[in-house]
Design brief:
168 residues, alpha+beta, 2 domains, two-stranded antiparallel ribbon, 5 strands, extended
Length: 168
Amino acid sequence: MDKLEAVQINRQLREKYGVTLGGENRYRLVWANDLTEHRDKKYDDIMARAETNAVLVPKYSYLKERWVLEFRAEVPVYQGEIKDWDGYECFYAFQWPDGSYQEPSWFHCDFLCYMKENIDPLTPDEARKMDEEDKKESIASYRAELENEGKLRLEDSVGYTGKEFSEN
């Protein structure tokens, strides 16, 4: 993918997902090697004095020659040692699980942004409740499947009381 295609994808992201109040794209596709930021670096010299200076470093030092899909975070996610935070955070790096290059496309970017916009993260309680409901559904489905195949008839089972199955 060349930079011209990235410009086109960024234009489409801007048209579909809009901009922030400050006029920045809410999402952008960037080449990881092109991004840098100033970070504090602590130096200890011979005289046992510690100095801190801002050093220009790659924003994504762990990603080389990869496309990155970023979102605009209105509130700093993490600044700490970063001195010139640009407001964008990575939410998808285009690489396969084995670390090899993955070619981005408008379809991929649109899908990822759509999912980020429309899928609400679950609280731990909601996730637990969903797991319990899934487990009950799974048990009911499995039981129905066995009954339908003639492998299981609860009425003929030893110890059948006529009451519904309960895990408790």
